[in-house]
Amino acid sequence: MKWSPDAPASAADILIALRFADRAARKAIGDELAGTGVHTGQEIVLAKLLHLGSLPVAQLAKVLDVEVPTATRTTQRMEAAGLVRRVKNDKDARQVSIELTDHGTELAHTVQQLHAQAGNRALAGVTPEDRRLLRNLLWTITANVDDLPG
């Protein structure tokens, strides 16, 4: 895909480029995940649980920005694969949290390395200064969208 770097960039142009960049990033990560037993989408669950620890499914869904049924199905598949386990709350047996198994923790660390490899491939030729600028701009866009009503 060719574009002129000097051409004006409308807001629509930028959002379209973000969508294509998201697709490219998902493909790069999917390529890296091949053969690990971790499916695209599950790597984010592994990363969040590694970072945040045990979470109730509803809270995990919120962190992942998905609906609770989606988080439930994903964690059920991951539980069947031995990546996570359900843990009942000592104070309220009705409340169940999801946590990584030892195998899930190992794979979460592997996924961190795979993200780094995919990122390095995707950002080849981008200077450290431009990487920092890009990261900050993307987080600003995310915050702006998250602050929109509805």
Automatic annotation (TrEMBL):
Superkingdom of origin organism: Bacteria
UniProt keyword terms in alphabetical order: DNA-binding, Transcription, Transcription regulation
Single annotated GO MF: DNA-binding transcription factor activity
Organism: Kribbella qitaiheensis
SUPFAM superfamilies xrefs: Winged helix' DNA-binding domain (SSF46785)
InterPro entries in the record: HTH_MarR-typ, WH-like_DNA-bd_sf, WH_DNA-bd_sf
Positions of the HTH marR-type domain: 11-143
Protein name from the UniProt record: MarR family transcriptional regulator
PROSITE patterns in the record: HTH_MARR_2
One protein family per Pfam: MarR
Alphabetical list of PANTHER family matching this protein: TRANSCRIPTIONAL REGULATOR, MARR, TRANSCRIPTIONAL REPRESSOR OF EMRAB OPERON
